Please model this.
Amino acid sequence: QVQLVESGGGLVQTGGSLRLSCAASGSIGSIVAMGWYRQAPGKQRELVASITSGGTTDYADSVKDRFTISRDNTKNTMYLQVSSLKPEDTAVYYCSARAWFSDTGYNYWGQGTQVTVSS
Model:
């Protein structure tokens, strides 16, 4: 089992920045990849950024050059630095982890943290 807890969301003006955090606990060693998703009202949840256990990162085109995903293995924490924020970035941001146990993959989710960008 893996538990994920996000923090760092809030209200920010257009052009502002935030740093989202995702603290992981439980069977950390079974995690092969982590990511940040977001879901705006009335829209489907979308992948924003991901990072593998090897450190390979990937981003949605809409956030490239504005968002940076990283992790601190000593703190079992993943981060998403969000900058140059736009009103369309307003959403609930969710942390996710993909872990493998006994040759079976599982997806875990945090509870989400709200990011609101005012124009």
